[in-house]
Write a structure and sequence with these properties.
This protein has one domain. The longest helix is centred in the middle third of the chain and has 10 residues. The protein is built from one helix and seven strands, in the order E-E-E-E-H-E-E-E. Helices cover 9% and strands 34% of the residues. The protein starts with a strand and ends with a strand. It has 115 residues and is mainly beta.
Length: 115
């Protein structure tokens, strides 16, 4: 039996300590392929590579992981995704900071498990 409790406005699985759930309440798992809203009615595919509740992660850049942990920048109810295709925010404009292939994403209605 799985117990549900409220945290940060979203249900979580208290028996496993999972705070990171999809909008429908199902748990987000490392390696899940998701679609992420990146613009008006525009979604791109990404893979979940880090969970905010445990900081559990796949084999990703260790310097990135160390920064996330040291600066406590990942909320418990969020995840880090890595783009599967081209980064939709990539640009060559020197007026703006460069973008990496990882993105922080809240576990909200715009983060959807890819079918």
């Amino acid at each position: 039996m799985v117990l549900q409790a409220a945290c940060c406005g979203a249900p979580h699985n208290s028996t496993l300590g999972i705070f990171v759930n999809y909008h429908d309440g199902s748990p987000i798992v490392l390696g899940d392929v998701v679609t992420v809203l990146v613009g008006p009615e525009k979604y791109e595919k990404a893979r979940v590579v880090m969970l905010g509740d445990t900081y559990e992660h796949l084999d990703i850049d260790e310097r990135f992981v160390e920064w996330v942990k040291a600066d406590n920048v990942l909320e418990k109810s969020s995840v880090v995704v890595e783009w599967l295709g081209a980064n939709p925010f990539e640009h060559d404009d020197p007026r703006y900071a460069p973008v990496g292939n990882y993105m922080f994403s809240p576990a909200d209605e715009w983060l959807r498990k890819d079918a």
